[in-house]
Amino acid sequence: MFGRILILFTLGLTSTFCSDEDVTLGARRNPPHHSSEEELKDLVVVSMQSVVSLNQLVTELTSRLVKVTLTVEDTAQQVKQLRASLTEETTNRNNQIKDVAGQFDELKIDSNVTIAALSDKLQVIEEQLGTEIVAVEEELTTLRDEVTRKNSAVSIVSAEAGLREASCSKVCAGSTGRSTSAWKYYSTSGITITVDMSACDFVAVPTVTTALEGRTSHWTTTGSSEVYSATATSFSIYIHKASGLRTSTALSWNLNIEWVAVGYIC
Fold it and tell me: Side by side, which strands form the sheet with 234-240?
């Protein structure tokens, strides 16, 4: 740009000189109105003014060029700093991503280890439970065998409703009680009582054996072993005494029926 300004300045001076020469020639042809000294003086003044203006223009352009240069350098420096900052930020982000990935891998490994440990513990617990279950089943089998053996100790060879499974047989016994027997009047020479055996849970009429127990004189009576109206839940007994027997006398003698029943519960 500075070169262009110098060329323009040179062309301007040449033009000026040419104009002056034409003026001089014209003055030779035509008589001048002013002296050549004054014209030369004016020409020098104009040239100096042009040089000053040109210097000012060059100074201004140089200042602008310096500012532009500084601005470009500042911009380049800022771009450089921005690139460096961006590179650093990218590196930090990559490092953070690597750290997170590493932590995730560690967590995954820990989780796998924990799951494996829990699986091992669960397997051990299952094995222990399996062993305990086997032991309990064996114990139950032993108990069943024992119950069957004990039940099989009661052997029923005949029954009114027919034979059933031996494991369903049961022996049940009781007493009407010395002070709680519910004796009832039957005749002037006899009394009766109904024995409840529903707690035995018999499903058929059992075989019942009875005896009269008391404090005194019951050896003089009859009927204590004769069972009447037997069902799965009850039976009746009639006690006879030739000289007469009242319910109050039976209670005072503590007379009661002791009984044993053998039957099926299933």
Answer: 184-187, 190-196, 234-240
